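Why predict the complex rather than its parts? Because the way molecules touch one another can change local conformation, and only a joint prediction can capture that. The input here totals 805 residues.
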Amino acid sequence: MDMSEYKEIFKAESEEHLQQLNDSLLGLEQNPNDLEYINTMFRSAHTLKGMSATMGFSTIAELTHEMENLMDMVRKSQVEVSNGLIDILFECLDTLEALVEAVDSGEEVDIAHLQATLAQAMEGTMPVQEIKGSVTASIDTIQNEIGKEIPENTADAETKTDVAPVIDNVELSDNEKQAIQDAIDEGNRVVSLKVILDESCVLKSARSTLVLINVSKMGEIIKCVPTEAELEDEKFDLEFSVIFATKSADEDIVGTIKKISEIKDVIPTTVAETSGVEEKQQEKKSEETEEKKNTSAVKRSDAVKSIQSVRVNIERLDNLMNLVGELIINKIRLNQLASDLNAKDLDESLANLDRLTNEIQTEVMESRMVPIDQIFSRFPRMVRDLAKSEGKQINLIIEGKEIELDRTVLDEIGDPLVHLLRNAVDHGIESEQERKQLGKPVAGLVRLAASRQRNSVLIEVEDDGKGMEPGHLRDIAVKKGLLTREEVDKLSDNDALNLIFMPGFSGAKVVTDISGRGVGMDAVKTKIEALGGSVKISSVPGQGSIMKLQLPLTVAIIQSLMVTVAGETYAIPLGNVIRDVGIKASDIKTIEGKEVIMLRGEVLPLLRLHDVLECPTEEEEKQNLIVVVVEKMGSNIGLVVDDLLGQQEVIIKTLDNKLLKNMKGFAGATILGDGSVALILDIATLI
Amino acid sequence: MVKVMIVDDAAFMRMVIKDILTKNGHEVVAECVDGLDAVNKYPEVKPELVFMDIVMPNMEGIDALKKIMEMDPAAKVVMCSSIGQQSVVTDALKTGALDFIVKPFDAAKVLEVIGKVI
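Output of the joint prediction:
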């Protein structure tokens, strides 16, 4: 059977189980006696075992099998949940992750070392090991015994009426002899049935049980060799015998038993019978069952289908989103044509098209939404490992993991969140000793919370650590040569906090191997803003910091304010826009060579998009100017534009070819209703 | 053609079994994610055959089997087990499961079992 087509789903589901294992293990570390975590881990390991065996990934199957055994021993209190055990299990999970990852490359991952460690972990439980040993030993002896007890059947075993004390060399007790006698008196035949299983049979005991169940439907079992208990314990090789009283004919018996799978051969031998066999009764019975079968088959044929969900490849959803985008562009185009042609007849169907495309867009967007838990779920493990390596105690609180975000957004925010959490643990939370001296709880608190706002999702990363001192941040900025002393002194305390977002700024006194990875807070901010989101920071020295990430629900389609500059149309994402105002050129003042205007009692710096975009300026200075007020890094800036065209939803086409990829200031391009292309301004990198 | 209900918490296993069945002319009338799901769906779906995993969250296969046998003593249930589950499979058979297959299984095994129990 070709299993390669199942690789993707195997990987996806294995990753889910690994996550569950990780979560449960973290839970178990906190509550070593909680049976639910142990059970969940047992189940996940077991499921993984079955899946990987089916795929033929024997290393994964082996490792999960041993983990399952270990969890089973933990469950039965044969192994204690110690720190050592937790660490070993974490190592198992990491190795499993690597193994699942290596499924594509076919790379070998060596698990011998881990298996040795696992074996050691189970070592603390000598009794179990001993039992294992004795079981194998006794199987051997039983195999020998069976060999002696049941030699090849011979036809001359047909002893009539008189009950022989020994059948097939099997000794019968007085009770058994009596049972055989009674059976014969009631008109039965006594049959000794030798059953031989396939060599490939895996669960021999269960197979033998199935045989016995079927035999007991045909008659009354008098004796089994080996005994039923021994059969259940799998204390036999491939064959066993059952002596039973029956009215069924040999061929029926053989037929019934051979219908069971994994049966190699069935050899019946009549050991005792009376002359009168009541076959009629038997026939009647089988007719009855035949009838029953028929009626139940009729009843069942009206079965209904009920499959509620399917898995869809993310690429499909991306394509679908693109198609919806194209559809919307065409719809806008059509609207424009209709109004150009003044074709009133089209109004109604265009309105319908409008509604339908909106609905499709909403549906497609919804189908792309995934719970934020998909990335949140990996953080408990990360925070635990971080805290452990730093010798800190951290309580991680996660809220709102059910909140949903577009898959694309979710894929992008993982790294920024990792960075923020690392900062919180590494720089935010004080050492245990410091916290004690400060009278804070020894365990630091890190809170990761998501909540749905109207058209966005808010993610907060909060810690109750040492917070940030604006003065200290000013000093660092000067020391690193990012700003002059005069410049930093002019900054408000809030603006001083925003210094950490400057490229080249790192607040850490000691660069640890954890946070000092070259991805600064500026990278976090750039990434979030590229998604159309924003980052805000607030901090109270001595009490902790809180980072607020505002994220759009989707990145593919955004509401934009359309403006014109020097005859070209540009889109400004509405998320950045505070408002638009009309001003008089005469109201513009100049501070330190920069244009500003007083607006509602505040100084608003002005930027002429003509200059920013390096467009030719009109010769004559206009008296009335249009300003779009946008927000950047918590402060407002006024963009002077030529004209406002209004709000519109635009489909973002990314500028990801080689030439345009690294161009700053543009989030992408979009196609307008008339087929022309407009650039989408990226306020974060433009100014 | 046999109408089959698949009960397994692993979507991967459901997919593998389903493909084996549908490629060989059988119909999968329901897929259940755990025992509870199976017990709920059984009466409305009325499958001719159930493939039942054993280790599952919420309700284990053996408990689901018991409930289904209570509802419909003529129910045809085949257990899907892994190695190392002798005793549970034995219990299941005593409860009324008609047969079992052991993971990893191939198409031939699955089809053989269907041929034997139906």
